[in-house]
Amino acid sequence: MKKEFYILICVFLITACSGNDDEGTSQPTVPTVAKLVFPENNQECTEGTQMTATESTVIFKWNESEHTEEYTVVIKNLLTQTTSRVTAKETNTPIRLQRGTPYEWYVISVSASGNTVESNPWKFYNAAEGSTSYAPFPATIVSPKVGEEVDITETSANVSLQWKGEDIEDDILSYVVYVGTDNNSLSKVGEVASNLTDIDMYVIEGNIYYWKVVSIDAKGNKSDSSLGRFIVK
Q: Residue 10: pLDDT above 50?
């Protein structure tokens, strides 16, 4: 009887200790979102250090995020659609950029356990040499998303093309929409005023469509969006 009593006590202690270990196990922590500071959103960046006639170095800045081991700054050249990444331990880092060029950037906060969270993206123009009138930012394709399959019905064979346009001078006059089933041969399907950011178009089931938006400002400056693509089912 005494031996059985000791065995029961040991089993209880082992179970209790195991339970405490489970309760004390901490879950991986997710970082909070970093808040971007500079370059400012939808603005011209004029504070870069000139490196050459075509390049300058800009100090990117953001607010500290909690539970973060390091940051990754993601920068996209909106003219070439090329993306680069820079890793930083602090909340600022110098990055060399092309002058007179529109960019989009955001910050990924990375925890010690590898969890990540992205900030909202900002756009800016890196200043060119001398006085310059900038073209609008290339419009952002919103819907259909690139590669999306779109269903049509017998009563409706139209698809709504939607985008977002922005400009640091706030003088966009119109958007011209081009569509085609060959990505090397797009045709103009419509032009809308700057207060509109969508257009309906007739589509045929089974086709793959490519499309883009050209933003035009009051000075005649133009910019092309990236190429959209969707499949009609």
A: no
